């Protein structure tokens, strides 16, 4: 009977696993399509004709996939008299990181999606802005 008790302890100890989440992605990720700046708290995105925010840390799972809340704003903030504010749209950024390459997309609250964008950690390309 005493041996059976030890087996239970060993089995339970082996099932534990770490409850700590993976370290968040950080740094600058860039391509001609976008520049993604990630911190341990979230991030900002500059597109060719838009901008966005990520409202929480980006922590990929064991497959490198992630899903985080954020915003998307078409155009750029322009300040001045008579200039209406841009509409900030909430949604979800999801994607996958493999090594130094990150692919992500945005899903609006209404279910519409933007296409996927690929960026590279410490990429040297500059974003091409729309005219």
List the helices and strands and how they pair.
Blueprint: H1 2-15, E1 27-30, E2 34-38, E3 43-47, E4 50-54, E5 65-74, E6 88-98, E7 101-108, E8 117-121
Antiparallel strand pairs: 1-2, 1-8, 2-3, 3-4, 4-5, 5-6, 6-7, 7-8
Protein model, in words:
The structure is a single chain. This protein is mainly β and 131 residues long. 11% of the residues lie in helices and 40% in strands. The protein has one helix at 2-15, and strands spanning 27-30, 34-38, 43-47, 50-54, 65-74, 88-98, 101-108, 117-121. Strands 1-2-3-4-5-6-7-8 form an 8-stranded antiparallel β-barrel. Strand 6 and strand 7 (101-108) form a beta hairpin. Residues 1-20 have low confidence and may be disordered.
What characteristics describe this protein?
131 residues, 8-stranded antiparallel beta barrel, 40% strand, disordered N terminus
Summarize the structure.
With 131 residues, this protein is mainly β.
Order of helices and strands: HEEEEEEEE
Q: Which stretches of 5+ consecutive residues score pLDDT under 50?
A: 1-20
Instruction: Provide a count of the helices.
Output: 1
Broad shape: globular
- Neighbour order of strands in the largest sheet: 1-2-3-4-5-6-7-8
Radius of gyration: 20 Å
Average predicted local confidence, pLDDT: 84
Report how far the terminal alpha carbons are from each other.
78 Å
């Amino acid at each position: 009977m005493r041996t059976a008790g030890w087996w239970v302890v060993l089995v339970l100890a082996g099932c534990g696993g770490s409850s700590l989440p993976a370290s968040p992605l950080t740094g600058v990720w860039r391509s001609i399509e976008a520049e993604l700046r990630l911190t341990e708290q979230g991030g900002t995105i500059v597109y060719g004709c838009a901008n966005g925010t990520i409202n929480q840390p980006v922590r990929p799972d064991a497959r490198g996939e992630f899903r985080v809340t954020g915003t998307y704003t078409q155009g750029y903030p322009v300040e001045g008299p008579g200039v209406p504010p841009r509409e900030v749209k909430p949604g979800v950024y999801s994607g996958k990181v493999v090594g130094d390459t990150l692919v992500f997309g945005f899903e609006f609250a209404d279910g519409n999606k933007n296409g996927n964008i690929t960026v590279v950690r410490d990429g040297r390309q500059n974003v091409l802005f729309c005219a």
